[in-house]
Amino acid sequence: MIELEGLTKRFGSKTAVDHLSFQVRPGVVTGFLGPNGAGKSTTMRMMLDLDNPTSGTVRIDGKHYRDLPEPLKHIGALLDAKAMHGGRSAYHNLLCLAQSNRIPERRVGEVLDLVGLTPVAKKKSKGFSLGMGQRLGIAAALLGDPEILMFDEPVNGLDPEGILWIRNLMKGLAAEGRTIFVSSHLMSEMALTADHLIVIGQGKLLADTSMSDFIHRNSRTYVRLRSPQQEQLKDVLHGAGITAVEVPGAGALEVDGVGAERLGELAAEHRIVLHELSPQRASLEEAFMRMTADAVEYHAHAPGRPELPLPGRAADNPARPADVPAWGAGFEQARQGGE
Ligand SMILES: Nc1ncnc2c1ncn2[C@@H]1O[C@H](COP(=O)(O)OP(=O)(O)OP(=O)(O)O)[C@@H](O)[C@H]1O
């Protein structure tokens, strides 16, 4: 278990992490979400004693990181895949880590095998692709067979097979009773992987809840209807005191707050043909955007706010490719150009 209590980090006048208190529990995958600059990496760095908190504490299985005798046997982390020594082979990078934590050499071979890097074990890691580097970082995290694993953007640079592999790996490790803490900007991936969510914005805790509860609380559910007799259907719904909103260009109606059963029965009573009667629920991405809208520091469209799609309508919003983080598609370019 990881426990944070009042964790705070200031860089000059900037408060990157602001009195964070939460626990990361064993047996589930806990996702760590927040817009760019929310303080996720700083929090993870403090968990590993790579940054000193301004105030507050982090405990790993009840202890401060620095008091763990052989830390890799308690907590493994992938923070920055490029942190490996580029001039050393994958094998030697891992061997050095293993020796510093009194981990037997045979474990190096085991983790290389586990991440699929055995064929390139003797190659210098500076020649590795982004995906291979991620795999090496994951191998390092697994080296001490720790009960707690932390992954910062683990699917970065992985191909679809690699993404599936890391998803199943994390779920499998959680099923073994380990504590898995993972950050990612890929909401679709997070929705498939995490059972529990910690959401932060501007360094503050915004949510500590199950995935389903998070989506449920932060999204609208509604029913979508399509009919060749749309006007007649609208009149019937209106007559029953139900407001139906037309979706421009989609030939569909959307109804809030009334179940699909009742809508279907009403249509049947009036012999109206339905081509679609489908309950809709917002995705994790939409729920996340709604929750963090006020905590987003960097916006894609200066000087206004990013356009929030209506909940449940992301599929109808062709302006944004599925995996571009909605809170700042242009931020990365701005940051690279501006810093
Ligand atoms: N060493 C540092 N010196 C000064 N400011 C810093 C430092 N490290 C982080 N910050 C600032 O602290 C804030 C939180 O940064 P952090 O990298 O933790 O956010 P993040 O949630 O991981 O962001 P991203 O999703 O973009 O990786 C940002 O405003 C960042 O500019």
Automatic annotation (TrEMBL):
Region labeled Disordered — which residues? Answer: 302-339
> Does the UniProt entry include the keyword Nucleotide-binding?
yes
UniProt keyword annotations, A-Z = ATP-binding, Nucleotide-binding, Transport
Q: Name one GO molecular function term.
A: ATP binding
Q: Name one Pfam family in it.
A: ABC_tran
Report the CDD domains cross-referenced here. ABC_BcrA_bacitracin_resist (cd03268)
Residue span(s) of domain ABC transporter: 2-227
Which domain of life does this protein belong to? Bacteria
What does the sequence similarity comment in the record state about its family? Answer: Belongs to the ABC transporter superfamily.
The name of this protein is ABC transporter ATP-binding protein
Originating organism: Streptomyces antimicrobicus
Lineage summary: Bacteria, Bacillati, Actinomycetota, Actinomycetes, Kitasatosporales
